[in-house]
From TrEMBL:
InterPro entries: Cro/C1-type_HTH, Lambda_DNA-bd_dom_sf, MLTR_LBD. PANTHER family: BLL4672 PROTEIN (PTHR35010:SF2), BLL4672 PROTEIN-RELATED (PTHR35010). It comes from Streptacidiphilus pinicola. This is Transcriptional regulator. SMART domains: HTH_XRE. Residues 34-84 form the HTH cro/C1-type domain. It comes from the Bacteria. GO terms for molecular function: DNA binding.
Length: 289
């Protein structure tokens, strides 16, 4: 992995963020017609109290940034907490970081056992590239039968684009998919040269114009918690809370757990889905241990 990979990502991220700001938003005069949207490089440089040449070199991936400059740029570009953390990680000044990931994370027996014990709660385990590496019966019943998808294609982001059923499942498919892309970018900040990620991004960029556009936006988000509206083919509308729990034995893995308030229609629907999934006629099972 080359250090320049980080610098190139840093430059693209800075360009994407300045393109979203107007002079008025940062207290500058309009300055007349603009060839492209957003702030000019020289305007960002003035606000960050650095030279235009220095800032241009940052965007071109030709030099690293000091912590003080990163802090100034984060303020100038109005970055939120996730974006600020991402910026700092991209701008880290260590000269070389060897790849730290296995080609595909593997799940420990204890984790699979915990998933299997969650009889009424949908859950699956996701890696930084959105690889689905484990799930329980309810997770498969809620989302899709992961076991039927070849491992090399078992990426959540890929399924969102390639499987028409996933587009029907999520009421706000675009919002869910944009968030998944932003999360994938954030959770791979430390591995810009990751070959598996590059292969996945390349495949989707060729196959889908929306992915290509949304990946190029350089938005970032951390997997944490939220609410999603699902239109399930068996039990109907579901309004589910989701939480991402990091597995301490392998921090690259997160357990996505779906829950609903006790006594709510969605809670009752999950109980119905559990009974449906337990019926041998439906042949839904958890992931291999």
């Amino acid at each position: 992995m080359k250090r320049d990979d980080h610098r190139n990502d840093l430059g693209e991220f800075l360009k994407a963020r300045r393109a979203e700001l107007t002079p008025a938003a940062v207290g500058l005069p309009d300055g007349g017609p603009r060839r492209v949207a957003g702030l000019r490089r020289e305007e960002v440089a003035v606000l960050a109290a650095i030279s235009t040449d220095y800032y241009s070199r940052l965007e071109q991936g030709r030099m690293p940034a000091s912590p003080a400059v990163l802090a100034s740029l984060a303020q100038v570009l109005r970055l939120d907490d996730d974006q600020r953390d991402y910026l700092y990680e991209l701008g880290a000044k260590d000269e070389y970081r060897p790849p730290r990931r296995a080609p595909r994370p593997r799940v420990q027996v204890q984790l699979q056992r915990m998933l299997d014990d969650m009889a009424h709660t949908p859950a699956f385990v996701i890696g930084p590239r959105t690889e689905i590496v484990a799930w329980n019966t309810m997770g498969a019943a809620l989302i899709t039968d992961f076991a039927q998808i070849p491992e090399k294609h078992r990426y959540y982001i890929r399924m969102l684009f390639a499987d028409p059923a996933m587009r029907e499942l999520y009421a706000d498919w675009e919002g869910v998919t944009r968030l998944a892309i932003a999360q994938m970018r954030r959770h791979n900040a430390a591995n810009p040269g990751d070959a598996k990620l590059a292969e996945l991004v390349g495949e989707l960029s060729v196959q889908d114009a929306q992915f290509r556009q949304w990946w190029a936006d350089h938005h970032v988000a951390t997997r944490g918690t939220g609410t999603k509206h699902l239109r399930h083919p068996v039990v109907g509308d579901l309004h589910l809370d989701w939480n991402a729990v990091t597995w301490a034995a392998d921090p690259d893995l997160q357990i996505i757990v779906w829950t609903a308030e006790a006594g709510s229609p969605t809670h009752d629907a999950l109980r119905l889905l559990s009974s449906w999934a337990a019926d041998p006629a439906h042949a839904i099972s958890g992931s291999p241990s």
